[in-house]
Amino acid sequence: MPISARNMRRYPGGSTNSKEWKAIRAEILERADNACEGSPAFPDCRVKNYAAHPETGSKVVLTIAHLDHDPSNSDDTNLRAWCQRCHNVYDLPHRKMNAARTRRDKMDQIDLIDYGSYLA
């Protein structure tokens, strides 16, 4: 899932391409021995970076997950190296909540439109 511009600015150095974030990412991958650290849903997942995932068959590209979903919180205890399956399953409730909020906000904007001006 792409990172929004608003959230991208919250990463150390202001981007996932910053030298600060790249250093943090490298530390987490080293801690994890370049393998998935396992998530609450799949605690024994230890698939290696760039290997074929044994369950999905897709090529694994490890990502760094923020357990609290806050990109500005880069404390080691808040970060995990996860495969796509572990990261996506963990983030699903958070994504559903954000999607519902986005739909509500869009509906609120529609309610603010003055339809009378369109009928004239």
Verbal overview:
The chain has 120 residues and is mainly alpha-helical. It has one domain (5-119). The chain has helices at residues 5-8, 19-31, 84-112, 116-119, and strands at 63-66, 79-82. A two-stranded antiparallel sheet has the order 1-2. The chain is globular and about 50 Å long. 14% of the residues are buried.
Q: Quick one: biggest sheet?
A: 2 strands, antiparallel
Low-confidence stretches: none
Shape: globular
**Rg for CA atoms:** 19 Å
Total number of domains: 1
How many H/I helical runs?
A: 4
As laid out across the biggest beta sheet, the strand order is 1-2
Structural class: mainly alpha
> What kind of assembly state do the chains in view correspond to?
single chain
Mean of residue pLDDT values:
83
In what range is the share of β-strand residues? 5-15%
Number of strands: 2
What is the helix fraction of residues, given as a range?
A: 40-55%
